[in-house]
Amino acid sequence: ENWCYYMALKAIRSMAVLLKKYNDTTAIDFKTGSIKGNFNRIFWNGNEYHSPQNYSKTDERANALAVLAGLADSAKWPVIHNILISNYNASPYMEKYVLEALFVMGYEKDALERMKHPDRYAPMVFDTLTTLYEQFGNKGTYNHGWSGGPLTLLSQYCAGVAPEKAGYESYHVFPQEAFLNYIRAVIPSVKGNITVEIEKDTNRFALLLESPQHTMAVTGIPLLPFKNKTPESIYANGQEIWHDGNVTQNTENILFNCLNSKYIVFNVKPGTYNFTATLKDTTVICTIPAPFTEEIFAVFPNPATDYVKIMRNDGHNSNTLISVYDCYGRLWLSKYSDRTEIIIDISKLKQGLYFISVSNDRHAKTFRMIKR
Fold this sequence. Notes:
9 helices; five-stranded mixed beta sheet; 32% strand; alpha+beta
């Protein structure tokens, strides 16, 4: 009930902005802020969201909805992740939201594994019928709409296609392909069909995009198509547009947007595009063997196991903010220091790719770091 009311208020706020009723947003912001603070104070017990007066077992549905509503901050996601992969109370209707929460938190592999679980959709998929049952256990009616939630998630998250503006004026293609090496999806929109075809192996990531007229496709090439592989060069229709961390060419139809913690992003005008990324080992691009004295900031060793050292060489005694993010954009550590040599303990982080953001009032830089 708290989740529903919170989401309703957020929708009303969007309506107020659209109607230019900005005075209403202040009252709405006060309500949503109050709900979020009290929701976490009352229901979060450190291990899960659970009503204090409820002595029944953990429920994955409420925890999933807290993620989707934005009530659960990313620091809680690893704990909620464990709840969502170990509890199976949801009906097919609510299962869609459990799966979506896993995608949103960056656990797409677990979302796909849960879909295939024997207590979930596996019996429906292997049934001789061509439609989906109303209830798990192949019960209820034989053709029920609410069992089709995973089909929308496969297009929205695995293929990565979702609108950013009304009427698909702008949409993004941010694939979360997990262990899938081939994906093909056709997504109907009011502007026309959007076709995405993805094929990858350990040496190459290929994305075919057919984008309809009067749209802008914000297209992301995954920074880690495989755990230890990252794009070295990216080609679009045979022309190199990215090489070894740098833009090599902007064209009339393809313009570099940004590099974030998950994707190398391009704005793409209507048309048909074959994106091909050649892959290389991540250690090649991430290794900084020693501090560079001509740089304002340096991070080493890299790869690292227990700690990293940040060196500051700007000649000023300003406070420096160090933030460590994983490859899904989740903040794992943040601290200020006015020292010129700062040591960060990373011993408790899992192995993988991380981003270290270092900034003060004069300079800023982001480093990619491998945790071994």
